[in-house]
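G., the chain you wanted modeled:
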Amino acid sequence: MDALTHEHVDQYADVISGVARLVAAGELAAAANALAPIAGEVWTQRSPVHVRTNAEPSGLKRGYVSKVTKARVYLRDGYVCTYCGGRAVALPVLAGISALFPSALPYSQHFKLGATHPVYWLLAAEADHNVAFAAGGADDESNFTTLHALCNTQKADAARDLLPEVTPRPAPAGWDGLVSTYPPIASLAAAAGGEHGPRYYADWERAFTLAAID
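Predicted structure as tokens:
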């Protein structure tokens, strides 16, 4: 893939949505067939950073951001990238699908170039600081926003209003980052193995549940 567009995000989101729902229904053979249009792709390009601020270190110690906090941020933002407006998918949903179909949807925990499918860059939700940590922004839920992994990488530590403008578009009604499909995916993925063990999937399921209760 030489260039990225909203259409790429939407195409991948459509495929992954169908696959996740088939897996959740226990239709694994049909899910494998649904993955076929994007099967085996890997990400090889380095992402340009839009703005370099050269912010001075804040002197603060970066804290641990819990899965529950991340889940709350994603839920609050409707599982939509607040920069480009594209649908975002919860990372453990993608990781679970990769555990079941490792060749079709290759995955590396650190998104290694040449070893990770483009859906991780284009769709995976990340919680990023509105005010960059390097500029003194707090590790607080109110200072986080939902971004795609790629949009987050391109943003770096820039303020939101310094980024090139894009025209956002609304996600389909009821979009939930495919979290509603997660429990059966998590159960199957935990048994399948892969990059993550059962505790990873259980911890995320608990985080999604707590976020929904709040």
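The longest strand covers residues 125-129.

Shout if anything looks off.
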